[in-house]
Amino acid sequence: QVQLVESGGGLVQAGGSLRLSCAASPRTFNTYAMGWFRQAPGKEREFVASIRWNSGSTLHADSVKGRFTISRDNTKNTVYLQMNSLKPEDTAVYYCAAAVGLNNYKYWGQGTQVTVSL
Length: 118
Prior knowledge:
Elements (H helix, E strand, L loop, with lengths): L2 E5 L2 E4 L4 E8 L7 E7 L6 E7 L5 E3 L7 E6 L4 E6 L8 E10 L2 E5 L3 E6 L1
Parallel strand pairs: 2-11
Antiparallel strand pairs: 1-3, 3-8, 4-5, 4-9, 5-6, 7-8, 9-10, 9-11
């Protein structure tokens, strides 16, 4: 059983930055990839970014490309989401997830709120 704990959310003005963290335990020996998703009120959950745990290759949604960057620290079993140039439409609950296979996200964190004000 993998437990994921997110942190780093909060309230920020448009144009500002936040960095989300997701600590995984126990060690993610069998993790295929880690991803970030978000869900805004009244909307479906959407993919934000993912990173392959072993290779480090990344994928970002078009809506965040050039503004958000996913990264990981294998020694700390932690994945990050650096969010720059934030917009009000980025307001959502952000979830960290661990995949055990391609697009097979089995474990989810509790979510962290990100609110971007004008």
